[in-house]
Protein 1
Amino acid sequence: MPLSKEKLEELTMTARKVRRHIIEMTAEAGSGHPGGSLSAADILVALYFHEMKVDPKNPHWPERDRFVLSKGHAAPVLYAVLAEKGFFPKEELKTLRKINSILQGHPDMKKTPGVDMTTGSLGQGLSAANGMALAGKLDGKDYRVYVLLGDGELEEGQVWEAAMAAAHYKLDNLTAFVDYNGLQIDGPIVEVMSPEVIQEKFRAFGWHVIDVNGHDFEDIVRAIEEAKETKGKPTVIVARTVKGKGVPFMENQVDWHGKAPSREQAEEALKGL
Amino acid sequence: MPKTATRDAYGKALAELGEEIKDIVVLDADLSKSTKTSVFAKKFPERFFNMGIAEQNLMATAAGLATCGKIPFASTFAVFATGRAFDQVRNSICYPKLNVKIAATHAGITVGEDGATHQSIEDLALMRALPNMTVICPADEVETRKAVRAAVEIKGPVYLRLGRHPVETIFDESYEFVPGKGVILREGKDVALIATGVMVAEALRAAELLAKDGIEAMVVNIHTIKPIDEEIILKAAECGAIVTAEEHSIIGGLGSAVAEVLVEKKPVPMKRIGVRDVFGQSGKPEELMKEYGLTADDIAGAAKSLLKR
Ligand SMILES: Cc1ncc(C[n+]2csc(CCOP(=O)(O)OP(=O)(O)O)c2C)c(N)n1
Ligand SMILES: [Mg+2]
């Protein structure tokens, strides 16, 4: 079903709020990862505000859809989405990365309501998502499992061990997203250690592959639908994104991977959001 | 006192050594700006290999380079160097005793805000358990520079534990660094404080605090966790009480190494300052040092409680 105009507007508004939170939280924390949080914002908003069945009042609801942020450094976008969804008060966002906060520098499933898996060491999230998908099949449940990987993260060998396993076990209840922003820390992915051609690699590993514009809700939602209809194999949605999306001075800038904006920079960023 | 992170000292020293020793090659895993191997990379691009986010591949590639006479320095964060790639370090580097230098930065909880996933508090334990491995944990900028040079002179695998956060410079240029030999930094007869890495500065401060209460504390710097300097530990034991201090779990690191020597050769009452078998969390480095009991006050308190017994 295509997105209604109202829904599209709602998602767009929510994404804007989420981006504002990302800027405010990282500025307040004085550290963190704005670039890869901003690039993933629309994907997470589409998942949590259109697709996934979750219950903020009951974060451990056994029938819920799962989400694993394999690129755990993008914790700010996950926290912003969970807060907007009502898993915890938005006030908490100010405590990001501070001592005794429920919002750790990287996602912690024991501390944050709504976080389904602890991540931060890259390359492990797809394996964990596989485990959740296998359990779903074993238990005859119809929940779906979503996982978001970084494009640089694809350089980890474990990602491909997991990709092999997901196809081997025909995990059609699992959908992976690749945040294809073209950058990692030391530079463009093709210069540091090219994981290209990403789509062909996944195809060769037995996956159904869909290309989307990761900032176009209609595109993202259509791909999620297609993934749900794809039987007998897992689907990967390779989402073309812009690192730092929404903040002009951060867009496509490798330096904004893991650096917080100053107060003035945050003000400037918020003006455009 | 000027403050420098040991990772910065490493980056500089490595680039300098690269000039002299052409067999040095450097590998990193998409963290060269953080580990400071970027300084070497800029100077010697043909001898620098960015392996991408692939630590296991990085370690075994370093092993291969070493079989051909190269002296690889393999760098990434300590959690990933020792944890993610443990089996590669064990089976491809240590077992064949290959000449790989693992220079891991962002060790310990002073990593700060990134939180528990990035705070290695068990790397000394892991690396110390491996036969053929030399384990060095420098306390400041000067010691780091000397340790990097010494690592090249050692034939075989070396683990260098480095930090992210700036620390005081304790030593001056005349300081002599001999791998495997501890250093008495302050004489004392009532209690011995044995420390490594960033905790050396805390131990020196603790000795000052104790002096105010009339307690004369010996301070020993153990920069080489393995092989451990038994002689200096036995000398310290003559004080009759020992406190160890490390920015690491109390399990498996300096405290354990010292206890192993004492229990076999000269048991004396002892306390270990370190992270008490818990994971860390996000926070400012100084706040975390307090939260996990890793300050001069904690060391002095442990010393006093030992002397009360
Ligand atoms: C195992 C592991 N190695 C290294 C790191 C450090 N690190 C954090 S983010 C990052 C780069 C990630 O690049 P990418 O996956 O493209 O993320 P994005 O561009 O979406 O932020 C690295 C190397 C880590 N967290 N885990
Ligand atoms: Mg990327």
Note: The radius of gyration of chain B is 19 Å.
Protein 2
Amino acid sequence: MGSPNTDNESKKKESTEEASIDALKHLLFQPESDRLAMLENRLDDPMTRANEISRSLPEAVSLSVMEGDRLTRVIQPVIDDSLKESVRKNPKALADAIFPALGPGIRKAITATIMGMIQSLNQVLNHSFSIQGIKWRLEALRTGRQFAEVVMLNTLVYQVEQIFLVHGDTGIVLEHVVAEGAMIQDPDLVSGMLTAIQDFVRDSFSTDGESESDGDLDTLRIGSNRSVWVEKGEHAFLAAVIRGNPPMELRTFYREIIEDLHLKAGSALAAFDGNTQPFALFRETLNSGLRFKEREDSQQISPVVWLIVALMVAAAVALPAYWGYRVNQASQEWKGRLEKIRDQKGVLVVSVERDDGVYRLNGLKDPLVEDPLTVLASENRSDIRARWQPFYSLDPAFVFQRAQTLLNPPPGVTLSLDRNTLIAKGKADQAWIDTFDIRATAIPGIDAANGDTLVNTDRIALSTAVNTLTALKIYFENNSTELIPGQTQKLSRLIETIRDVNRLMVILNLSVQITIVGHTDSSGTEKYNMKLSRERAETIYAFVKSRSMSYGFINTLGVGTQVRLKEETREEDRQFNRAVSFRANVLSANQGTPLNRRALQDPHPKPDGS
Amino acid sequence: MTKKKICLLGAFAVGKTSLVQQYVNSIFSDKYHTTVGVKIEKTSVDVDGEAVDLIIWDLHGEDDFQHVRLSYLKGSAGLIFVADGTRHSTLATALNLRQIAESSMGSLPFMLLVNKADLADQWEIDDEVMEDLRGQGISVIPTSAKTGQSVEWAFEELARKMVGK
Ligand SMILES: Nc1nc2c(ncn2[C@@H]2O[C@H](COP(=O)(O)OP(=O)(O)OP(=O)(O)O)[C@@H](O)[C@H]2O)c(=O)[nH]1
Ligand SMILES: [Mg+2]
């Protein structure tokens, strides 16, 4: 392609050639190209394509379903979205569709709520006009709470005494828990009767129209103050014996327990054949349902304190004249200050007297309160003269702090207070355990001490020492009472351990009997070996005696070859029997006084203290 | 722990309660207090080295089959039918009850006790009838709640059947 001329010429020529090729193509491929155009049309025109796919869609879907759940997964988000969209646009359609399923559930929930409201309303009304009610009205005025709230607070006092988990068909108890102190009958008998009663109620009272669960018994009342709540599931029910007035939320909690049980053990329940073992798992859960609520008595003052107050008052003859209402004469400002002083725990103002612009307070204070007046700013204290007599406040915080100070527990011990019982947990030595036992109950406000789970570290040390000792072997030359060389360290361990044992048995008030046992190898005559073994034991005894202050609890024994430390299958084994070993016997010294109660318990204390 | 529920059924005053009391508490009384509804007792029995708790439902006597409370039978692992040897009709009642129980519960291990064996002179059910029933594969045991005759054995035999040993 050189000059422009030749270019033009060749183009002309090409175009004529093209025209003829097209004509040829047309002749040759006309039918195909028509088909192609049609195909193109089928592919391009959405209407046509849709028409065709719609014909094969059902087959395609069913093939895809047969092959697995891929289709489901792919389609699911689309369906989710379209459902949402559909509900958004036309909620009524969905409501209509699911109403039959939701209806009974909602009805039940509403009934429960209304029952709950009626119950609390009842209480409010019941208490409106009693003396108690008037008291509570005053309390409401004072605290700014609603009257109803005060009543609820004061009456919602309850305790769940027992919970039964019962297999529905057989009436057999799967698991049963009891609150401390509750009186119980054989749970199987109780649950059997409960089941029978339910059967009876269902047979006798459920009417045909009602769904099965509607005719069920859900509460039994016993006397005025006790009830049994029944929460029923498909295969099992939960029955809670409750004293007092439980809140309705508790029912929801039990409902959840029973649902959880069916979720986790539904098949075991359905196939239940009398084996209750698998249901022990639910014990913890049931225990968490043993709830209680105590009356809130923060205002209540212990009778002991009143007694002290009364004595104080009697003693201070001059005071009664100023008792109580004198305060009314004081200004509003003074009232505020006095309130602050009085509001402190561990502080009791007995009388107030105004004298020459000075307020004279007489009262009681717990030694743990530094100075009751420090709640006031210092300029507000200048006109107050206070005289405080010491008294022990029985407020739990004070009781606990007092226990902490007086008992001074070692780092491994934690104290806690459960009502009037002081509980110690952790590790402590015998000396501290003794202190705890003797002194805890002497602390005002503490009636009982519980250190049952305390781990006695001295006791552990003793068993460690005994183990060390019984593991120790001292070896001798052949046919001799001479030690083989290289055992100096063992000997000093021996002396140390014996000293430990001696020290610990005194602390623990136990007696320990240590026996040094001599052995020989199996060569030589029986008679000779007995003598040699005895002499070996005595050699060690003499050594101990020379190094240790006390040895009265040690004796010796020769056993010759009668007790083998090792079977002599090879020559080298013999050396192991030319030895002394040690035995230790822990005996209790005298019949346990409460003092060494724990020392006598359990010769092998577990380190976890359980 | 394995626990099994069993039920006692039979006509009025055949001695269901007495049998249970004899078995569980080893006591017998001549007084008749009819059972209303159901009375439940529990005892432990050793079946070839395995301890099984029996929860025994002592049902009220039933002469009118139309009103048998089948719901009480639910979940039973075994049944005891009781007849009174001194009243022939009670055997028919027992057999009828068995039929009803079987149609609603399927076949369960069971025993047929013919009670009051101590009253031999007033006996109305002869040995032939009992042999006949045995021939049909029914365990028929003459018992006496009064003397304790075969009572323990009958309960334990049922327990063995229920545990499948
Ligand atoms: N002689 C004798 N008397 C019996 C025996 N068993 C029961 N009785 C008496 O029969 C009467 C009825 O006994 P129950 O055990 O109460 O009978 P039941 O089958 O429980 O009766 P219901 O509960 O009313 O169905 C009582 O007076 C018993 O003392 C027995 O073996 N021998
Ligand atoms: Mg009876």
Note: Chain B has one domain: 2-162.
